Every structure is written in C-alpha cells, then in structure tokens.
Amino acid sequence: MTPVYEFMAAGALTGFVVGLTGVGGGALMTPLLLLLFGVAPHTAIGTDLWFAALTKLAVTPLHHGKNLIDWQILKRLWIGSLTASAVTTLWIGTHPPDLASAIVLKRAIAVAVCLTAAGLIFQKALRDRAGRRLLDNAAKLASWQAPMTVLAGAILGVLVTLTSVGSGALGAVMLVYLYPTRLTPSRLVATDIAHAIPLAIFAGVGHLLAGGVDPRMLAALLAGSIPAAIIAATMSARMPHGVLRAALAAVLLAVGAKLAFDAW
C-alpha cells in the first residue's frame, strides 16, 4: 500500500501547477497515478476528476475576487461540455471496465497528454494568428464565436469524461483561438479553471457510481493540493506564463511518450 505522504506530495506538486497555470489536474495527475503509483486506469481517471474539480474549486474564489472570470464565455462552454459529458457518461455506464478497455484508456490518455503539451507549445502562436484574423474579419468571426465555443465545450466534455485530461491546456488553446484579444493570460487561466469544475464533477459522478474513485487516495491528494494551489493562485498574475508553459510542456511530452511506450 502506497504511503499517504507520497500521495500528498504528488497532490502538492500538481496543485501548485494548477494554481499557476490552470493545467495539470488531469494531464499531470492521471499519468502520475498510472506511472508512479500503478493505479488502474479507470480508478486513476475517476479519482483524478474529483481531485481536479475540488482543487480548482479551492482557487476559483481568488480569481473571481479579481474579476478575472468571463462568465459569458463560461456559459457557452458549459452548454457544450456538460451535455457531451452526460452522453459520454451514459456510454461508459453501458461498457463495464475490462482489460481491453484499460489498454484503450491508457492509449487515449497518452494521446490526450501529448495533445495537451502541443497546446501549451503553440498557444502563443495560435493567439497571434487568431488576433490577425480577428482584425481582418472581425464581424464574420464574431458571428461564429458562440456556436464554436459550444462545439469546443462538447469536444472537451467527451475528452475529459473519457480520460480526465484536456480541460486545462486544450481548453485554453481553443479559447485563445476563439477570443485572442478578449482573454488576457490571467483571464484565460481563471475562465479555464472555472469551466473545469462542474465538468469534472459531472463526469466524476458517473465514475463514482461505477466504483472508479478511491476515497483514501483522493483525500491524501487533496490534503497536498489545496494549500499548494491556493499559494500558487496568489502568485499567478505575477509569473511569466510563457516560461511556465514551456517547462510544463516539456514535462508532459516526456510523460506522454512514456505512457504511449507502455500502452503500445
């Protein structure tokens, strides 16, 4: 049995990253549970969904107090993501976990982690490109923002429910491309974190009912993550987000490669 302090340390590390960047609740914690602790994929995903939701819930009041959350964008994302999560949860309920599904989940998580790393790397380039397009076609692009935001939410809803990965970096990439001038880095992090909370809870309920959550492990992870995330969130606005994204992307690429090597 893994000592509680090891889960607390893993939670603190991930919580600090989440508080700074909004990324890591799934992209970092799920691989840690799989690679370092040998947790079964279904349990890692279910436990991580609740871990991410409760950790991000702890730091959201700090962002809300600074008026950084864009609630209009958030509502559009939730329309797509919560609907897609409900449908995906129903599908999971009709497909009980077995060895074959565990292998598929490991592969899906590996792909999602690598996509998350790519999203972190290309986020600035996408923002610049989208900003130029917005200047050239402002009226046309504005008419597509709402439906495309709902679609982006739906994609995230499926991905997060299946793998627990994607709500952070991939969500941020989509928002950067859709709202390049409206969302500053700090507003992007705050809005992205706020979106992930009900989505992770919504998806986590399905995994909880299916027995895919380890309460002891979850409690230990949260004991480390919540204090670390709160400390990091107070520092977020003053930190160099570009440097943080690059460092996190390098870590996630290595983790994703390891997961892919083990799964194939």
Topology of this structure?
Elements: H1 4-21, H2 29-35, H3 41-65, H4 71-93, H5 99-136, H6 138-163, H7 169-178, H8 185-209, H9 215-235, H10 241-263
Helix pairs in contact: 1-9, 2-3, 3-8, 3-9, 4-6, 4-8, 5-6, 5-7, 5-10, 6-7
Task: Describe what is shown at a glance.
By secondary structure, this protein is mainly alpha-helical. The chain has helices at 4-21, 29-35, 41-65, 71-93, 99-136, 138-163, 169-178, 185-209, 215-235, 241-263.
Give a verbal description of the structure.
The chain has 264 residues and is an all-alpha fold. The protein has one domain (4-263). Helices cover 82% and strands 0% of the residues. The protein is built from ten helices and no strands. It has helices at 4-21, 29-35, 41-65, 71-93, 99-136, 138-163, 169-178, 185-209, 215-235, 241-263.
Helix content: over 70%
Total number of beta strands = 0
Biggest sheet architecture: none
Mean pLDDT, to the nearest integer, reads 85
The helix-strand sequence is HHHHHHHHHH
Please compute the radius of gyration using only Cα atoms.
17 Å
Derived structural class = mainly alpha
Number of domains: 1
Shape: globular
The percentage of residues in β strands lies in: under 5%
Low-confidence stretches: none
| H/I helix tally | 10
| Head-to-tail CA distance between termini | 27 Å
